[in-house]
Amino acid sequence: MKKLLVNIALISLTLLYSCNKEMGVPDIVEEQQEGTTDRETYFLIADQQSNAAHLINYGGEELFNWDFSSALGNDVNLMSDGSVVVCLKANNASITYGGYGGIFRKINADQSIDWEVTYSSASHTAHHDVEYLSNGHIIFPAWEEVTRAQAAEEGFGGNYALNPESIIEMDPITQEIVWEWHAMDHIIQDYDNTKPNNGIVADNPNKIDINYNYRTRNDGDIMHINGLTLDEKNDLLYLTVNNYSEIWVLDHSTTTLEASSSSGGNYGLGGDLVYRFGNPETYDNIGEPTLSNVHYPNLLETGNMLAYANDVYGNQSAVVEFELNPPYHLIAGQSNEPTVVWSFTDGNLYSSGLSSAVRMDNGNTLIAEGRDGTLWEVTTEGEIEWLNKTNYATIWRAYVFYSDDPAIIALGL
Q: By the 8 A CB rule, do 150 and 195 touch?
């Protein structure tokens, strides 16, 4: 009965929004939202189809626009000085799965280019996401080339080349790589006992099973990291790994040498996974999966994490909030899954890729339904407070800003 009422409310809201839009009547939901605060709410949208980023308000009015000269490679970060750090597609990229990029550009508030770096060659391509760190560095995921013969020597069961993941931290001014991590340094496999890394997957929860999904894939993009978040306070790096349907946690306190090993760093595990959650099937463990495909590891100020679960109900998405409690422990044969403290789903919420969820200052959650171009604002009780089918066909993510934010002030709004 509750689901029926939610769906009726959704239909009513959609009709109301459409009618108001056609008649030029102010959006009632917008009036209710903005009438409760003395500052305005804005949404930053990265739109792949138009290769642009848009800052809009509740009414859908565009207040600021960034029209990039190159194809958008997904993420756009608005900084406190009004600049943006954006991922763009490299013309010479050799690895071109969905979400590929290869170029990072920092564009000032006056639209001049501050710096640009490229991480794209015959052997690697940056993709999807970038974070601009407090030390001025950037950190991002990148695919690497592993030949079919090399993959076989590592005990991979498929008969094709691989593009496993790496994480690169770079000083964009000097273009020096200051830290890196490579997934292939931390694999386990139980396919071929004559090859390295052979072992019992269930006994090695900190390792990555290279053969987890090879029977269901036909290309080398076996992992597909699509988002990362660095918790600088705890020096922990969170990664959404779409094709493993889980979130990996790395110890960023390691040196690059330690990150290539299984020792060193705050956890003493080097670059092995210090924690993972969302899909215990990936390491033959007990516990219920809560993610099926996943985007955006959004670490909240509370220490909890929001994630967009793309297919968790089969052609129906969900937003899940996990309670996280570092320092972490992974124990074989025991459920390591964090507590789910909040979630939202709806029969009309579905995007097979892209998408995001952020927590707003009013306690509501803004959801970007990526491949439908729809924004949802839902309450903690799961009520749909606002719904907007935007003019943008695809939304990588949507971020929330307020009129008193330094970034908005720097843009002159």
A: no
Domain limits for position 130: 2-291+324-344+401-410
| Ranges of residues in the chain whose predicted pLDDT is under 70 | 1-37
**In this structure, is residue 329 part of a structural domain?**
yes
pLDDT in tens, 373-384: 999 999 999 999
Provide DSSP, 279-328: -GGGGT--S----SSEEEEEE-TTS-EEEEESSTTSS--EEEEEE--SSP
Report how many domains make up the chain. Answer: 1
Peptide linkage before 327 cis (omega within 30 of 0):
yes
What pLDDT, on the 0 to 100 scale, is given for residue 218? 86
Q: Which DSSP category does 162 fall into?
A: B
Q: What is the DSSP string of 108-131?
A: -TTS-EEEEEE-BSSSEEEBS--E
C-alpha closest to that of 253 among 271, 273, 227, 239: 271
Residue at 60 is within a domain:
yes
Residue 97's CATH number: 2.130.10
